[in-house]
Amino acid sequence: MKAPLDLDQLQTFISIADTGSFTRAAEEVHRTQSAVSMQMRRLEERIGKPLFEKDGRTNKLTEEGDRLLSYARRLIYLNRETLAAFDDQRLEGTIRIGTPDDYADRFLPEIMARFSRSNPRVELTVVCEPTPGLVEHIKRGNLDLALVTHNDTRGQSEVVRREPLLWVTSANHATHEQEILPMAFGRPNCIWRRAAVDVLDRQNREYRVLFSSFSATVITAAVLSGLAVSVLPECALRPGMRVLGEADGFGQLPDCRIGIMRGQTSQPEIVDALARHIAESLDNISVPVSEEAGSFDFAALAFAKMKRVKANQIMPGW
């Protein structure tokens, strides 16, 4: 029977994948560059496959390396969770987290499950509001941490996930073919709304805003009922939706960047732990798409994914 994988090697492997550099990874894991190179040679021998290939000055994962990355992250997380379960000095207290409802629906179950297993003595208080409101809560000290749509003009947030922003319509209606396009948007200060309006204006496409709401549930209902077209991130796709692309006359939208904002807190250890769990959870979550579940335009979605991969080649695994 083969010997088990070395967790230290896997942690170094993850650091290289995330930074794209043996040198920066060596700084993160507090080893010399030669020691890191030796670890990776031994890991490649253990796996029996090449894990890296040079791409200019960066180290890009091979196809086999990309496959290993998701397993490595899960093994490292499970190791941390196991140690935390037997730690008598486990974190305890209350932490206030905010998130828009569309992110809450998709991401919170995984985040809360992972965090609660490792930190059963920590109570989570969750607030669901659109990103602008969460930013204000952070500034006023009402939240310890918020999962937000990153916007360079709203303050600093640490980007932990990047997804395509997509035009969506009902798979059962021809709403997108109407001469004056009916739209369902967030409130006027929503950056997705502004991005969509910019594209429509550049294309001289006539439209009218039929529904405006801060609730993702309302926007989704308007789309699925065939009343309006909207823009949603990849994570918000639902069965019964159709993704619209350039072949349908809809121009490219900017990516949606999901970030973490931290507030002033007296419990930085808990905030750091939750932020780490969020980053790891979002890295492991895939798009909930299955051919049985809905009627997505898979060609448009695959094209959007291809562009996202090209934009993130330094950080494989997204």
How does this model look, in words?
The chain is an alpha/beta fold and 318 residues long. 44% of the residues lie in helices and 20% in strands. The strands form four sheets. A five-stranded mixed beta sheet has the order 4-3-5-12-6, with helices on both faces. The radius of gyration is 22 Å and the shape is globular. The model is unreliable at 288-318 (pLDDT under 50).
- Give the overall silhouette: globular
Overall pLDDT score: 83
Q: Assign the CATH topology of the largest domain.
A: D-Maltodextrin-Binding Protein, domain 2
Using only C-alpha atoms, the radius of gyration works out to: 22 Å
CATH superfamily of the largest domain: Periplasmic binding protein-like II
Oligomeric state of the chains in view: single chain
- Going by helix content, strand content and strand pairing, the class is alpha/beta
Cα-to-Cα separation, first versus last residue: 33 Å
Low-pLDDT windows of residues: 288-318
The helix/strand order is: HHHEEHEHEHEEEEHEHEEEHH
In total, the number of domains comes to 3
The CATH class of the largest domain, by name, is Alpha Beta
Percentage of residues in helical conformation: 40-55%
Major beta sheet, specifics?
Answer: 5 strands, mixed
Give the strand line-up of the largest sheet.
4-3-5-12-6
Number of β-strand runs: 12
